[in-house]
Amino acid sequence: xxxxxxxxxxxxxxxxxxxxxxxxxxxxxxxxxxxxxxxxxxxxxxxxxxxxxxxxxxxxxxxxxxxxxxxxxxxxxxxxxxxxxxxxxxxxxxxxxxxxxxxxxxxxxxxxxxxxxxxxxxxxxxxxxxxxxxxxxxxxxxxxxxxxxxxxxxxxxxxxxxxxxxxxxxxxxxxxxxxxxxxxxxxxxxxxxxxxxxxxxxxxxxxxxxxxxxxxxxxxxxxxxxxxxxxxxxxxxxxxxxxxxxxxxxxxxxxxxxxxxxxxxxxxxxxxxxxxx
Length: 277
What we know:
- The protein has nine helices and seven strands; from the N terminus they run βαβαβαβαβαβαααβα.
- By secondary structure, the protein is an alpha/beta fold.
- The protein has a single domain (7-191, 216-252), classed as 3-Layer(aba) Sandwich (Rossmann fold), CATH 3.40.50.
- Strand 4, helix 4 (104-132) and strand 5 (136-141) form a beta-alpha-beta unit.
- Helix 1 (16-27) crosses helix 8 (219-230).
- The protein is globular.
């Protein structure tokens, strides 16, 4: 078991990618604290994940310094240490507001969660790791859209670009303390956002036609990558953002021979809309 006796915090750990990471960490022997804002979803996720291993849900709004401090304190009170911090919680502009119409309030909401929350969450976790004196691991969750220009999600894209640069400077700043920092940059993954894409045949076709692998990835695959980045197998990987995107980040034109999904084929995508976790 690659994470035996390790303790991890995963923000946004009750659904999607965060839940997938929690599952894989528990399978590898870690004790896990999952944080999120929705109490009902959090308690349900905790119940399900307990079937695998030792887990605790803690309410956490990553835009709140109080909550960020609290989730670390609760982790220490429950498990006695903190070895891995996964900054996964994020949000987006569901209205796809045009650049000329974005308000300061919209900007601040997304940036406070996606960048400020990652910045200070990592800082608080790192302070605890330094106090413990035996190093640790920080994994940030960025996005393929940190590299791709997506003008319909300008603040989100900007925030994820910031996460990638933050990952580099965090890695440099924390190296003297033996704290390893890297990021995961997912492409099209089976999450709530992707299920919304999956309800629009034209948009789904656009995404998949520019993904050479020709499919959506799974939270489990992100979880396996997070396990790799959290254990000693990845010790010489430093400040990197690892793209897990089926080739989406570099495919400029539709894949040759790509078959457009028909209305009949589209019934197969219903699972992405109905799945709750």
